[in-house]
Amino acid sequence: MNRRPTRVQRQNPFELRPLLRVIGLLLTVLACFMMPPMIVDLVYGHRDWLVFLLTGGVTLFVGVSLLLANRGSIIQALSTRQAFILTTSVWVVLTAFAALPFLYADQQMSLADAVFEATSGITTTGSTVMSGLEEAPPGLLLWRSILQWLGGIGIIVMGVAVLPLLSVGGMQLFRTENSDRSDKILPRAGQLASAIGSVYLLFTLACAVAYAVAGMSWFDAINHAMTTVATGGYSTRDASMAAFDSATIEWIAVAFMFTGAIPFVLYIQALGGEPGILVRDTQVVWFTGIVLAAWTLMAGTLVVGHGLDPMTALRHAAFNTTSIVTGTGYATTDFGGWGPLAVTFFFFLMCVGGCTGSTTGGIKVFRFAVLYAIARTQILRLIQPSGVFLATYNGRLIPDAVAISVMAFFFLFALSFSVIALLLSALGLDYLTAMSAAITSLANVGPGLGPVVGPVLNFSDIPEAAKWIMAFAMLLGRLEMFTILVLLAPAFWRK
Questions:
Q1: pLDDT tens for residues 74-118?
Q2: pLDDT over threshold 90, residue 157
Q3: How far is the C-alpha of 123 from the C-alpha of 478, rounded, in Å?
């Protein structure tokens, strides 16, 4: 007797119990990562160990409660609505609980400051309201670095596994490509995530050892390794990397910032016996070209305009341009004083970002490559109306849906930037401060420009309302805008 095939039952598109279970699991993991800062404060004899014990306990209690209350719910076929709700709610909820140690630590932060610092950390933006970092509790410094490290791996997983399925901003371009590659490298998505995590951890350990050998203390080396590979930019010193005054440390940072900006799936593929993929991938080629062009332009500016010797100019140019284009946000000098050309160049460089599937923020290089391919094809069609010209990316035809999504992303990015800059200006910030604060938060870069939020300053002096706006902009940029803005559409909530 023939049996009818079993039908896969989808979840109710507004069923929240499976989502709460996932959030509970992630909160439990976050609580576990609050233990290392507690231990560090205990070792150093700082009383903030109690803050991490209590906030970790609260986070663990909420996480376990959500797990137990929803233990019978299993996600079998996630609806699109559920995926959008889950993606946004995970980042918002984790940020809220990550802010608790900042709120109750000895730094005496306001709620706005605590949320700003936590949001900047977990989105790997790197903007900070903290000063006097050399005297800050060591556990709190480690917590900032851990947040950026966790945010970095979360960004990679989101870029590889989540956003392509949601067709956000042209990311569907990588759905077939990445799944094809994953099938060739590893048989299951879980194994792919595990492999990415292993590579991420390996790079972090290598970076920490390199920093320690170059002269950092192990505490500084571990903290900076986590924020370098995550392209986050939090430091244990007010002067950032300039505090170490070491060319060797700076070149190590350049190498690992660049490493963090390359798609991690390509590293797995290279380790699997296909090293040539790292020099053939369109994103990598474009990104490398942008970085080298930035080095050349800024080094030339420093040699011609400021009289620096070529090697010193190259060192400063390479470090600071790589830091900005990858969204890391370290600084070794006030590049705002390099002249009008440098300020303008750095402003636009903040928008670029690295590659999809890496830890970086910004618009992402692949969107520029797609836009270029579309524009080039259109120009060729104008020149030869009877010719047949097709826009391609990595040797594959760019579907119309991807082209539309990419152009829509550029429009939304520009619109969001304009609205955020206008809101910051309305709060009393000057033109350069408002513009650079808007772009650095939306592109998840870190430092701003000008005399208020420049590369060697922080965001402690801006109004609290501006900090809330920037915190929202950081999440908006990190979640590629569509993921949050779609929740604001009334049609999304209609059955």
A1: 655 677 888 899 999 999 999 999 999 999 998 889 999 999 999
A2: no
A3: 6
Can you tell me whether residue 292 is helix, strand or coil? Answer: helix
11 neighbors 82 (Cβ within 8 angstroms): yes
Decide if pLDDT at 1 tops 90. no
Q: What are phi and psi of 57, to 5 degrees?
A: -65, -45
Q: CA 138, CA 419: separation in Å to the nearest integer?
A: 38
228 and 328 Cβ atoms separated by less than 8 Å: yes
- Phi and psi of 461, rounded to 5°? -90, -5
Alpha carbon separation from 430 to 29, 289, 419, 452, 453 (Å, rounded): 41, 34, 15, 9, 11
**Scanning the structure block, which residue is given the tokens 């690295």?**
354
397 phi and psi angles, rounded to 5 deg: -65, 135
- Residue 467: both structure tokens together: 């900090």
Contact 230, 148 (CB under 8 A): yes
User: Within 10 Å of residue 152's Cβ, how many Cβ atoms?
Assistant: 27
- What CA–CA distance (Å, rounded) separates 357 from 160? 5
User: Cα dihedral sign for 14, 20, 26, 27?
Assistant: positive
C-alpha pair distances (Å), 470 with each of 95, 125, 423, 474: 14, 11, 10, 6
Which amino acid would we find at residue 281? D
Q: What is the pTM of this model?
A: 0.92
Q: What distance, in Å, lies between the first and last C-alpha atoms of the chain?
A: 39
| Among candidate residues 295, 191, 305, 308, the one with its CA nearest the CA of residue 251 | 295
Question: In this predicted model, what pLDDT tens digit does every residue of 205-248 receive, in sequence order?
Answer: 999 999 999 999 999 999 999 999 999 999 999 999 999 999 99
Say if residue 355's pLDDT is above 70: yes
Extract the tokens encoding 174. 């990588």
> CA angle at residue 223 from 125 to 89, to 5 degrees?
40
Residue 152 in tokens: 């970095």
Q: In this structure, what is the dihedral angle of CA atoms 378, 382, 383, 386, given to the nearest 10 degrees?
A: 100
Q: Are 131 and 458 in contact (CB under 8 A)?
A: yes
